[in-house]
Amino acid sequence: MDLQHGLQFTSNLKLQASTNYDITAGSKLCILTAGVRQKEGEDRRNLLERNISIFKGIVPQLVKYSPDTVILVVSNPVDVMSYVTWKLSGLPPNRVFGSGTSLDSSRLRYFMSERLKVDVNSCHGHVIGEHGESSVVVWSGMNVAGVRLSDLNPDIGTEKDAERWLDIHRKVIDSATEVIKLKGYTSWAIGLCVSELTASILRNKKSIFALSTMAKGFQGIEEEIYISLPCALAENGVASVVQLRLTDTEKAKLHKSASELAELFKSAKL
Length: 270
Hints:
- 37% of the residues lie in helices and 16% in strands.
- The protein contains seven helices and eleven strands.
- The strands form four sheets. It has a three-stranded parallel β-sheet with strand order 1-2-3, sandwiched between helices.
- Helix 1 (48-65) packs parallel to helix 2 and helix 3 (102-116) crosses helix 5.
- The model has no long low-confidence stretch (mean pLDDT 92).
């Protein structure tokens, strides 16, 4: 209702709300943000069981009324919830994915721009792996206007790095906790992020984002898990996965992140 009262100030759209799922019939895209709120200092993994029970009541209903839909999962822990949604939906894996580390990557680029004093849109880099503690920064690919930071600082992202870029990764990981501490929840940054993901789907743009996707067979990952990798996002969901050239260290960290998530996936009671 509050949003409906402001429709005069937006583009031409129809805003509806209902407790009946039939209102979603024929949807091209369903975005799942349902779930219990993450508390200050709470690990995303602690949210798992409560959010799975919520999704069991939502996902089958969405697919019932929109069998050709694409599903974007935002709820945390997003990697496991994306996997759970895929299992509950029965849809092809490319049509079910999570926001993953797309926001982590945006945070990384922001902190890059702050440190280097250049526009955030000229800073490029990806955070992959788990949306959480075991996330992996692809230091070897971080660049500004095509100039790789690792060419200027070969020790970037290591303990030997005099510039302490590792501190930037820590800030990325701790960002949600800091925002929650200050205002109780995160909203604006993830909202802007989801808006961009939505535009890429509805306009078939094939923009590249780090998304939680079915990773089996990519980067040597053998487990059937959802984890974040750079993906081209189009009208049918994940159109392709970008095969990054990772260093041995980056690949080892990604495999470690995948292994930790695989153990968590096993605990998901569907």
